[in-house]
Specification:
Helix content: 25-40%
Distance between the termini: 37 Å
Number of helices: 9
Shape: globular
Order of helices and strands: HHEHEHHEEHEHEHH
Radius of gyration: 17 Å
Strand content: 5-15%
Number of strands: 6
Structural class: alpha/beta
Length: about 220
């Protein structure tokens, strides 16, 4: 089965693309995209992989669903297209970075592709969603695929930083070799979690850079 994805990933994930579950997943996605409005657009479904070849990968941030509002999702978790107002979770991410590192962010600039190009994989565990219907493409096979991706990253890379935000992302820790990678955990940046004190003050962005520096990797420029 032909999947348009960065070649470095295609070599490692090729067996998944030919598996029965993935064939069924793609059939479902194609049908739903043909019948309804879904996000992100087809060419951006694998953007997290295309922006970040595995040999360049340094950091993994795990999200859950793409944004399901008009023109929001662009294939990178927590990221929105330029000109789109920042969703609440992204607002809180930017607030934490501002306190942690001093960077300020413009209200209409929430495209995180600059991070992805530096080796930050912004991976949603479900890569597609129906318009205005959160979770509509969950439990169709995407989670099997992205669990495999996390396992491949754990095996094929060294000294990668995994940022696990919220209970859903923390469940993925079991897929990661914590002896060869750095795992940072906190509450989710959504208002429900952040306003209860589980997000702000985690300093994940400076801690991430401190670790990368300690293992001889270049730091991430978290500004946009």
């Amino acid at each position: 089965m032909s999947v348009k994805i960065n070649e470095s990933w295609k070599k490692l994930l090729d067996s998944e693309f030919y598996s029965e579950y993935f064939k069924n997943l793609i059939a479902f996605v194609k049908e739903d995209y043909s019948k309804t409005t879904c996000y992100p657009k087809g060419s951006q479904i694998f953007s997290a992989f295309d922006f970040c070849p595995i040999n360049d990968l340094k950091v993994v941030i795990i999200g859950q669903d793409p944004y399901h509002g008009v023109d929001q999702a662009n294939g990178l978790c927590f990221s929105v297209n330029i000109g789109i107002p920042h969703p609440p979770s992204l607002i809180n991410i930017f607030k934490e970075i501002e306190v942690d590192l001093g960077y300020k962010f413009k209200d209409n600039k929430g495209d995180l592709s600059k991070w992805a190009k530096q080796g930050v994989m912004l991976l949603n565990t479900t890569l597609t969603v129906r318009n205005n219907s959160a979770g509509s493409h969950q439990n169709k096979g995407w989670e099997i695929f992205t669990d495999k991706v996390i396992e491949v990253i754990s095996i094929e890379t060294n000294n990668t930083v995994f940022l696990l935000w919220g209970s859903f992302a923390k469940q993925k820790k079991k897929l990661i070799d914590i002896h060869k990678h750095k795992v940072l955990e906190s509450g989710h940046p959504s208002p429900l979690s952040a306003n209860r004190g589980y997000w702000f003050g985690n300093k994940h962005f400076s801690k991430c850079n401190d670790y990368l520096d300690s293992v001889g990797k270049s730091k991430i420029d978290w500004s946009l």
